[in-house]
Amino acid sequence: MAEHTSSSITIEAAPADVMGVIADFARYPEWTGEVKEAEVLETDDSGRAEKVRLLLDAGAIKDDHTLAYTWTGTDKVSWTLVKSQMLRSLDGSYRLAAVGGDRTEVTYQLTVDVKIPMLGMIKRKAEKVIIDRALAGLKKRVESRA
User: pLDDT tens digits, residue range 96-108?
Assistant: First the structure.
């Protein structure tokens, strides 16, 4: 089993509001920083994205990749890599948990494997940076909308 990195943050909003921001791929370029373009390619019967193309510019890593999304109830979304120029794999998930009142604990788990050789320690550090930036951006975006 591949190693993964995960981190959590508490957001001052209800889980449905947090998931609403996570599911709104068209707006990712407004708050994620690294995502410059997002295009939903396929949706399920509920209108949720099943396949999304993302144009990423994270400094050392610039990539045009497609992810497949799986929605589990109203509190979890996971994704896996369909195709990429630079990545061998990109698997991740957001899991939401209500924590009293209108507060949500968001846990982001990520596993990245690049096509170029890279030490495991450096990969884990890159994953941690990606996760921390994503969680901070998500928190700011959700709480600014409240």
Answer: 999 987 999 999 9
